[in-house]
Design a protein that fits this description.
Chain lengths: 328, 260
């Protein structure tokens, strides 16, 4: 449904999107994950025809976003970062206007507007001026605007920003419900959102794709001895020194309290040190209170990927991502 | 064209839900009404005096024509101040609020957006001018001998063309900035310059001065106030309007290219 190939967008002083390629299948929800300024919004703007790409191609529903911009725009519903609202309009008048410019036929317009309001649960605010609505309601009106013409492709830039937890859950349910009949791209920097709503994740950092995979795979990719949590009844310095001697240990962070040291050991991928670690501690005669492998949540992967210090982790994931991408 | 109509409807709604349109129209009508009243009484007085002098060989004054000529001269000056206010927020506000992104990612062409907005501001201008016709209707109804209706029609055509030109110009300046204040200042400055060109042209002579004079949007307006509809003047205004719309379309398109 969406095919992006080698997409690059350079602005005068920087490259915002750097040779990005990915495919979104029909009915899929793709999550765009990355820190601010990673190129999520720019990629979305290119897909919606708001910005032209410097090089590379992007196709939506078989139409090129640059050459057949109008055809693409007919098929896309788009919620930008800041919902594009006319504050002086009432909710229903605004949605009616959007339905008009999105070419919804006159006889269907009323039903489409009603439908969008029901889906986003804003029917009771229909006669209110948009400027009098709370942030959460404004966001939902923005969402309704993206749905009103029942587009094949829906692009949502940070759809849950500014919502309270209850509304966030509602919006996620709504997005989940739209999948199947619609193809959805959503961007976010909130990780649980991705693992909860998306079928696949694109992790993007500084304009480049760091990884593309399902949330489950991304998590397992980094687990298995990646992090080990250990609790030992001994002196902190002695414990960290002993752990550092083991092969494959990258970093040890320790904290001691009540005569016990709780340490998180970061291990190079593929290394299994738990048995060696246990043997070492027992060999030293220290009491071992706990030893377990820690699954990296997506949040940590994301931090690993996008924090400057952990270059190696990002390299690993980039390689993994490239492997995955090179598969047909 | 459906897209254009949708944008037009939205703009009209926007003008009339905000107090801006009402205030501009009210200010215009109060000033126009005052000038009409003043001109009428002063010119009637002059005519009365001239009538007295006529017995001693002076020329009579055609009151309706004199009032119309002077009144529409004043109107053109009022437009100079008021049209930038009609157009200043047309694009700048949408750029600032991010709604331009909605329009530009919807299946409407840039030309449809620009025309929809232009015709909406033109409609507001027409609505603003319409009530001034009441005064003329009264004046012409009571004037003797026959009333120069055709001169009045030519006056209104002229003022509409002049207004449309200023609106096209103002819309363009609104599309280049996110600030309504800057948009208003730029269009006001440009319009003022086009007005002053008339004086500049008067001072000099030769081809240069004539060329500069020709560009003055207000010079082409004079003929209309004398009841003369000269095709060249109409074409001058129409080409100015087309140029303004063309530049605005280019400017809207360029938003895609420079957004960082």
């Amino acid at each position: 449904m969406i095919e992006v190939k080698d997409l690059t967008k350079s602005f005068a002083e920087r490259t915002a999107v750097d040779h990005v390629s990915f495919v979104v299948n029909k009915g899929e929800i793709l999550g765009f994950l990355g820190p601010n300024g990673a190129g999520k919004t720019t990629t979305m703007r290119i897909l919606t025809g708001f910005l032209p790409a410097t090089s590379g191609t992007a196709q939506v529903a078989g139409f090129d976003v640059f050459n057949d911009s109008l055809e693409v725009r007919k098929r896309i519903g788009y919620l930008p970062e800041n919902p594009p609202l006319y504050l002086d309009m009432t909710v229903s008048a605004y949605l009616d206007f959007v339905a008009r410019i999105k070419n919804v036929p006159a006889e269907k317009r009323h039903a489409s507007v009603e439908d969008a309001m029901v889906k986003t649960n804003i029917q009771d605010k229909r006669h209110e001026l948009i400027k009098r609505l709370s942030r959460g309601y404004k966001q939902r009106v923005g969402l309704a605007q993206a749905l009103v013409h029942d587009p094949q492709v829906i692009i949502l830039d940070e759809p849950t920003v500014g919502l309270d937890p209850k509304q966030i859950i509602e919006v996620r349910h709504l997005i989940k419900g739209l999948a199947g009949s619609h193809t959805i791209i959503l961007s976010t920097h909130i990780l649980p959102e991705v693992s909860m709503t998306c079928d696949r994740v694109v992790i993007i950092n500084r304009g480049r794709i760091a990884a593309i995979d399902t949330p489950a795979n991304l998590t397992t990719q980094l687990k298995g001895g990646q992090h080990v949590s250990v609790e030992v009844g001994a002196d902190q310095n002695a414990v960290t020194a002993a752990i550092r001697e083991l092969p494959g240990v990258r970093k040890v962070t320790a904290e001691s309290a009540n005569g016990r040291v709780a340490a998180i050991v970061e291990v190079s991928p593929g290394q299994e040190i738990r048995s060696q670690l246990a043997a070492k501690i027992v060999g030293k005669g220290w009491p071992l209170f706990e030893l377990r492998g820690v699954n990296l949540s997506l949040e940590e992967i994301f931090l690993e990927l996008t924090t400057e210090e952990s270059e190696s982790a990002s390299k690993v994931l980039t390689e993994a991502g490239e492997l995955r991408r090179s598969k047909p | 064209m459906k897209g254009m109509y949708a944008v037009y409807r939205k703009e009209m709604g926007h003008y009339f839900v905000s107090p801006v349109a009402y205030i501009i129209v009210a200010v215009f009508l109060v000033l126009a009404g005052y000038f009409f009243n003043q001109l009428l009484s002063v010119i009637i007085q002059q005519a009365f005096q001239a009538g007295l002098e006529d017995q001693f060989g002076g020329a009579p004054i055609d009151v309706p024509s004199a009032v119309m000529r002077n009144f529409f001269g004043v109107i053109s000056t009022l437009l100079l101040f008021l049209t930038p206010m009609l157009t200043m927020s047309v694009y700048s506000e949408e750029r600032r609020r991010g709604t331009m992104e909605l329009l530009m990612t919807s299946p409407v062409t840039d030309l449809e957006i620009v025309l929809g907005k232009f015709f909406a501001s033109l409609t507001l201008l027409a609505i603003m001018l319409l009530p001034t016709a009441i005064g003329f209707a009264y004046m012409l109804h009571y004037s003797e001998p026959t009333a120069p209706w055709r001169v009045l029609a030519s006056d209104y055509l002229g003022v509409l063309l002049l207004g449309a030109t200023l609106l096209a110009l103002g819309s363009f300046f609104s599309s280049v900035t996110e600030s309504t204040l800057i948009a208003a200042m730029l269009s006001f400055g440009a319009i003022l310059l086009l007005w002053v060109l008339d004086f500049g042209g008067n001072a000099g002579s030769g081809a240069w001065a004539q060329g500069v004079q020709y560009l003055s949007v207000f010079r082409h307006y004079d003929d209309f106030t004398h009841g003369v509809i000269d095709t060249s003047n109409v074409i001058f205004y129409l080409s100015f309007i087309v140029l303004g719309i063309f530049l605005t379309v280019r400017s809207v398109d360029s938003m895609r290219w420079r957004r960082a």
